[in-house]
Design the sequence.
């Protein structure tokens, strides 16, 4: 397993962790959801973007 694959796996797992924590926080509601809900959503979208970027870079590097 290459370093790129390990990095992608870490990013995917981090995205999953943020997604699950956001869903749990949303289901609980209250002040914590109002305070951290948007931050968790931004973190999830950012991690998804990074994962997709690294996947595209690996495909581009492998096609040469």
Sequence:
């Amino acid at each position: 397993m290459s370093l790129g694959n390990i990095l992608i796996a870490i990013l995917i797992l981090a995205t999953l962790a943020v997604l699950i924590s956001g869903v749990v926080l949303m289901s609980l509601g209250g002040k914590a959801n109002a305070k951290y809900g948007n931050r968790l959503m931004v973190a999830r979208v950012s991690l998804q973007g990074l994962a997709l970027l690294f996947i595209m870079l690996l495909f581009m590097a492998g096609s040469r």
Observations:
- The radius of gyration is 15 Å.
- DSSP finds two helices and no strands in the chain.
- The chain has a mean pLDDT of 92.
- The CA atoms of residues 11 and 51 lie 6 Å apart.
